[in-house]
Write a structure and sequence with these properties.
Blueprint lengths: L2 E6 L2 E6 L6 E4 L23 H15 L6 E2 L9 E3 L18 E4 L5 E6 L3 E6 L6 E6 L1 H5 L2 H13 L7 E4 L9 E2 L2 H10 L7 E4 L2 E4 L1 H11 L4 E4 L14 H4 L6 E6 L6
Helix pairs in contact: 3-5
Length: 266
């Protein structure tokens, strides 16, 4: 089982084969946005129009099986806030309309969760037993705060999920090859995870490089998740395919990681 590419016309996205719920990690391809936001941009920024963002979500919805009225989005601030949401929280496709959080969980059928990235780490969660799903955005601060593990804990607490049943997928982000930092970042990670995180940190000269995918997988394993698929894609290595904040120096769109809750048939 692995994370694979799907194409519907010009639309291109990634899916994890062991997650049974409708979901995807988007790429830059298949939308209607123009200029430096071309073409599948999912967030209002720069000179983007609401019409373009809404149409991009409609294109994804046609492929995955959701409507704009099914969406719950994140207004991300690199926190460890996990929101438990339901149908009453669906407010459409503009992240400014939502409360602050960096992860969402739900067990409401039809509700579709969305997090945004452009170098940070997207995490999708699905419990095939209860039908509950989750989505998390993990920058390095969220990684240090174990946002992925906290989303798993919320699913267990609120929906009765057994973490051993949860399927997780970690999508494209800035890879070990390119995530260069000063000493403050590895210090924060080691303070949070101890020496178990040390294999995922490498000093090269005066700078440090971190494997954020592996550290987020560690967070998930500590929360009890054993089924984890990890994308090999690096956003900086493939800026023609993925939005990268570092490559574009902030003149960019945003990818989405989306997952829809489906009712479990018993």
């Amino acid at each position: 089982m692995s994370i694979i590419t799907q194409k519907v016309g010009t639309l291109e996205y990634l899916v994890a084969q062991h997650i049974p719920a409708p979901h995807c990690f988007t790429t830059r391809h298949g939308g209607v946005s123009t200029g430096p936001l071309s073409s599948m941009n999912l967030a209002i920024k720069l000179d983007e129009t609401e019409e373009n963002v809404a149409e991009n979500f409609r294109i994804l919805g046609n492929a995955l099986g959701f409507t704009l009225s099914d969406l719950v989005l994140t207004r991300q601030t690199h926190s460890d806030i996990v929101r438990v949401v339901g149908r009453e929280d669906c407010k459409g496709c503009f992240h400014r309309d939502y409360p602050e959080c960096d992860a969402l969980v739900t067990n409401s059928p039809g509700v579709t969760l969305v997090v945004f990235t452009a170098d940070c780490t997207p995490i999708l969660l699905c419990d095939p037993v209860t039908g509950a799903v989750g989505a998390a955005h993990a920058g390095w601060r969220g990684t240090a705060l174990a946002i992925g593990g906290k989303a798993v804990q919320a699913m267990a607490e609120h929906f009765g999920c057994d973490p051993a049943n949860i399927r997780a997928a970690i999508g494209p982000n800035i890879g070990f090859c390119h995530f260069e930092t000063d000493a403050d970042v590895p210090e924060a990670i080691l303070a949070a995870y101890g020496e178990e995180a040390a294999p995922y940190i490498e000093q090269r000269g005066e700078k440090y490089y971190l494997d954020l995918k592996a550290i987020n997988a560690l967070s998930l394993r500590r929360a009890g998740v054993t089924h984890i698929e990890i994308s090999e894609d690096c956003t900086m290595c493939s800026p023609d395919r993925f939005w990268s904040h570092r490559v574009t120096r902030g003149i960019r769109g945003s990818q989405g990681a989306l997952i829809q809750c489906k009712e479990v048939v018993k």
